[in-house]
Amino acid sequence: MKSGIITILVIISYFRLTGQENLSFSYVDSTTYAAWQKQEWNSIIEIGNKAIANNIDYYYLRMRLGIAYYEKMQYNDALLHFEKALEFNSADETAMEYKYYSLLFSGKSRGAGYYAKTLPKSLLDKIKPELPKKIDKIIIEGGFNILPGFDTLKTIITPPPDPKNYRLEKDVSGKFQFGTFSLNHELNRKFSLFHSFNFLQTNGFQQLYFNFNKYNETNYTLNQLQYYIAPTFYGKKNNSFTLFANIMYITANNYKYTYLRLAYPPSPPNYIYKIETQSFVLWQYVAGFNYLKSYKNDLIDITATFSNINNNYQIQLITGYGFYANKQKTIFSKTNITLFSQKPDIKFIFNQSIKFKIIKQLWLDVFGSYGKLRNYNENNGYTVLNTHDETLYRIGTKLSFPIYRKLNFYVSYSYSVKNLPLEYIYFTGIKQSKETFQTVIQNKKYNQHLIYGGLIWKF
Questions:
Q1: Which contacts (CB < 8 Å, 24+ apart) does range 341-346 have?
Q2: Could you tell me the residue ranges of all domains in the chain?
Q3: Cα–Cα distance for residue pair 270/258, rounded to 1 Å
Q4: Closest Cα partner for 134 from 73, 67, 186?
Q5: Which of 379, 287, 289, 394 lies closest to 334 in space, CA to CA?
Q6: Strand partners, 309
Q7: C-alpha to C-alpha distance for 335 and 321, rounded to whole angstroms
Q8: pLDDT value at position 202?
């Protein structure tokens, strides 16, 4: 037994020594140089990695490996080798240039910008990189929705087919348009600040139904002013921590419906209502944090929000996982699962997005959501769904591309299936000297088309 083990060890040692002899410095250097001249990238990668595993490591080998991975669009692997090359020759501008573009094309545009600030002037004049600035980006965005069934939704009244006297206070959110102006500030490598000003105008419709008749069918306009702020702190290990807050100020001149009492006779009794105009004012807010950790080809993030929307309190806990589906980083998938709580309801909401790089700097996003989205926020509290209806599911797409070097354009379309719950209330009797009522909910489904776009100016 002992002699057998010794024999195996001798054989292993022989093959290791033989492999090291074949991978001499001169062999590695001449072979990888010849492959580099012929642009045989796979050969360079195969031989170069074996050489490094056998402790053969030098500047030109790292540059050839980096260029081979770069040409195969495997930018993370390329970045590793250019950084190693710079350890051998810290003044080499070719390695610096490749490192900058490897950062940029691997999705680390912020890191590329700050790295570019360390480059010599001669290289800056050559590549003209986008350097981070105190006012780094201006974003102008606008959009509108289309509701094909809105006129029907406004007028429809379908109480249950029985002799009960039902009452219904209907408030429908209709067509809207919005405009947004946003700024991003790169204050230093560890800190950035994003904030946004938004104006939204919505056409609404009110309708009161009681005593078997329609009353007070009225159109009105709702205005919403919104301010969003999100400072982000960046760590040393590809992680970031963002705090955010969104404050909304909503105004409208509409009607206030106040149920007063029952009137006898007849049977069933009639309802007495007070109908008065009002200057409606409502403050809403969302606050929370996001923690994001990036790895070589994937990321995880955790988000928590607390909000007061439509005079109800909500808590959202979101976990997200994203990954690149290929080494070239041209396909990126992100999944979010949200635990949503608003008393008395607790539910899960699912979001999925897939991003494709079609050609250089042309990206196509496909996204979808499933769950009852009402009094709900997303995108770190930036987007708030605070209308009277609920979104059952939606699908959409977004196209992003540069107009020229410092100006990007994007346009998005989404299709949503929405639901408006109509609450028909009827009198059930007197219990303990108090009027009692029950509610019958009728769900009215309809469709929404949302179109928006924007310009991003990078200083």
A1: 341/314, 341/315, 341/316, 342/312, 342/313, 342/314, 342/315, 342/375, 343/312, 343/313
A2: 2-127, 137-458
A3: 14
A4: 186
A5: 379
A6: 312
A7: 5
A8: 96
Beta strands in 330-382 (DSSP E): 331-342, 345-359, 362-373, 376-378
Are 192 and 183 in contact by the 8 Å Cβ rule? The answer is no
Q: Tokens 């001249």, residue?
A: 37
Which residues, including other chains, have CB under 8 Å from residue 131's CB and lie 6 or more apart?
113, 116, 117
d(CA 79, CA 63): 10
CA distances (Å), 205 to each of 155, 256, 303, in order? 9, 13, 35
Kindly give, in sequence order, each residue whose CB lies less than 8 Å from that of residue 29, ignoring residues fewer than 6 positions away.
Answer: 58, 60, 61
Helix (H) or strand (E) holding 440: strand 434-458
- Residue 318 to residue 338: CA distance in whole angstroms: 4
Q: What angle do CA 336, 340, 345 make, to 5 degrees?
A: 150
> What pLDDT is recorded for position 22?
63
Q: CA-based Rg of the chain, rounded to a whole angstrom?
A: 31
Contact predicate 349/369, CB 8 Å: yes
Residue 78 CA from chain centroid, whole number: 28
Measured on CA atoms in the order 75, 77, 80, 82, is the torsion positive or negative? negative
447's CB contacts (< 8 A; 6+ apart) are 147, 148, 149, 415, 416, 417, 418
pLDDT score at 21 = 46
The total number of residues written for the chain in this structure: 459
CATH topology of domain 2-127: 1.25.40
CATH second-level architecture of 137-458?
A: Beta Barrel (2.40)
**What distance in Å separates the CA atoms of residue 131 and residue 407, rounded to the nearest whole number?**
15
Q: What pLDDT is recorded for position 338?
A: 98
Report d(CA 113, CA 336) in Å as an integer.
29
Local mean pLDDT, 10-residue blocks, the chain (459 residues): 42 40 82 93 94 93 94 92 94 94 90 93 92 95 94 88 92 95 96 98 95 92 98 93 98 95 88 95 98 93 97 97 90 97 95 92 94 96 94 97 91 96 94 92 94 95
Residues with Cβ within 8 Å of residue 251, at least 6 apart in sequence: 222, 223, 279, 280, 281, 282
User: Nearest CA to 255 among 311, 203, 205, 212?
Assistant: 205
The pairing of strands 407-431 and 137-146 is unpaired
Rounded to 10 degrees, what is the CA torsion of 64, 66, 72, 74?
160
